[in-house]
Design goal:
The structure is a single chain. The chain has 296 residues and is of the alpha/beta class. Helix content is 41%, strand content 16%. The strands form two sheets. The chain has a seven-stranded parallel sheet with strand order 3-2-1-4-5-6-9, sandwiched between helices. It has a three-stranded mixed sheet with strand order 7-8-10. A hairpin with a 4-residue loop joins strand 7 and strand 8 (166-170). Helix 1 crosses helix 8 (182-191), helix 5 (92-103) packs parallel to helix 6 (122-137) and helix 9 packs across helix 13 (283-290). The chain is globular.
């Protein structure tokens, strides 16, 4: 049995889908307050649904019973609130690790963040602390450390609005980033189970090319046939926001944007040699998929 925590999220749902596509049994861990449509979609994939919450350690023990592999993609960043902070939600991964060990799980796959993106904020600190907790747990572990997700960082949510040909650019926009598709990250997570190269290992993940935000704009301009208007966000403005944030979420976004703005190049040659069946999504392919094509 494969237990997936964070199953209603973008990455977690894709991991569930890939596992079920391979005929693997999946137990999806969802909160009582999870989006019912997303829960039903998981049920439609053939997942067993179990209700639990990383803020409630007692709910994790029954969820882990009989699980041979445990995946967690959980982060509070998508559902942050004063009651659901990084320290209460993301730190719950530590309790999930302990519950998986107690249940006798064979392998634990923890989705962290690229070693090149060391954001100075609660989220970044907790990710690294959870990595160390997992390493010391005695479980067979795989720590997946992806760079910036194309679907998040090159989306309207973070100021990259391809439909309206507008983009916010941090600093000069010349620092290169190994943008990666969440779908590719999911493929690596699933392929890691039982894979010798993933046994007690940290796997740094990036896309096929390191591309600057300005180069990304050009790629989308070619895909849309539109010229983008650019708004440059000064590094100094983000530094000021990071130094005096209104709340931990604001500090986290400022910290992450600063890190991505400084660049994150992830060489993938050795990883792809170890996982030859995975073909990475290029930014050109992503742009073509993201932009609606005109009717013929």
């Amino acid at each position: 049995m494969n237990l997936v925590a964070g199953a209603t999220g973008l990455l977690g749902t894709e991991i569930c889908r890939l596992l079920r596509e391979r005929g693997q049994p999946v137990r999806a861990l969802v909160r009582a307050t999870s989006d019912s449509a997303k829960v039903e979609a998981l049920r439609g994939l053939g997942c067993e649904i179990v209700t639990g919450d990383l803020r409630d350690p007692s709910s994790l023990r029954p969820a882990c019973q009989g699980a041979t592999a445990v995946f967690t993609t959980v982060t509070a960043i998508g559902s942050y609130s004063p009651e659901n902070t990084f320290r209460t939600a993301d730190a719950g991964n530590r309790d999930l690790i302990d519950a998986a060990k107690e249940a006798g799980a064979f392998q634990f796959v923890f989705v962290s963040v690229s070693s090149g993106l060391n954001a100075d904020c609660d989220l970044g600190h907790i990710k690294r602390a959870n990595e160390q907790h997992l390493i010391k747990s005695g479980l067979t572990y795989t720590i997946v450390r992806p760079s910036a997700f194309m679907e998040i960082w090159l989306s309207p949510r973070l100021g990259f609005d391809a439909a309206n040909a507008r983009a916010n650019i941090v600093g000069t926009g010349e620092a290169r980033v190994s943008y990666i598709s969440y779908r590719d990250v999911a493929r690596f997570c699933v392929a890691a189970i039982g894979h010798p190269a993933a046994r007690n290992a940290g796997i740094e993940l990036g896309g096929p090319d390191a591309i600057s935000p300005l180069e990304a704009v050009h790629i989308f301009e070619n895909a849309t046939g539109k010229t983008f208007s650019l708004a440059h966000i000064p590094i100094e403005a983000l530094q000021a926001q990071h130094a005096a944030p209104a709340n931990p979420l604001e500090k986290t976004f400022a910290a992450l944007m600063l890190e991505v703005g400084h660049g994150d190049v992830v060489p993938m040659h050795d990883v792809l040699r170890a996982f030859p069946g995975i073909a990475l999504t290029s930014l050109e392919d992503f742009a073509r998929q993201a932009v609606p094509q005109p009717a013929v």
